[in-house]
Write the structure tokens for this entry.
Amino acid sequence: MSARARSYNTEGVILRRRNLGEADSIFTVFSPREGKFDAIAKGVRKPRSHMRGHLEPLTRSQLQLAQGRNLDVFTQAETIAAYRGVRDDLDRLTLALYCCELVDRFTAERAAQPRLYELLNETLEGLDAQAPLTVGRSFELQILAQCGFELQLSNCAICAGPIPEQDTLIHAAAGGLVCDGCRGKAETGRILSVRAIKVLRFGRTATIGQFAGLRLEESLESELQRALADAIRLVLDRETNSGRYLDALSQPLREAKRAAPGHVQSSTPPSI
Ligand SMILES: [Zn+2]
């Protein structure tokens, strides 16, 4: 924004931090009106810094900034939501940081995306309130759609013909589902089950809260995770660090869950 005042207020979620010199840090912030931007917090790593706890990654804070020659400078920060329920759980923390990384990677500097800001906060609030980790799939679906990469799930992504209710190829490079007739034109891809397709279609319009109400069995969740990871990776053109970490982490967790006695999941999503 070229017309910003010399000093301005905004709320924002801290996406990441990198340290500078002995006591300063640069924070990447995602805000509803300013979009994504970097700003510097001077002396924030000193023990007595009054902004120290309010600029941690994942924190939603009210911020005051002064325009700087290169980078803007934080002059005040006050936490709106610290999302402690997310920080106290490694799985939730990993997923939340992954969502922040996707926002960072999918957005351009200083481009306002208020709906994406809302989506990020709804997701963080959901995770904080113990929503199932499957809300990550809803986040992926919606960030793809909001940033211009919506998966084609109603018709064939190649010929726009109808998709019968059957297991169907999903091809990230084509942009979504591919009908039997076009399958030869898609070099790679995954076969998605009818149930997975229904969940994805539901997730296109569902809120994070509605998606959190689905009870997805493990195999279905893995199917969705792989299909969406393909689409995300294609857009980013390389795997995100958190994405790789998430994959590495989820494998032993799945094994641990399987080994746990009395681990039962209902099989049918209730509302689709
Ligand atoms: Zn087709």
Summary: The longest helix spans residues 218-236. The pocket of zinc ion is lined by residues 156, 158-159, 161, 178-179, 181-182 (CB under 6 Å). The mean pLDDT is 88. The CA atoms of residues 142 and 204 lie 7 Å apart.
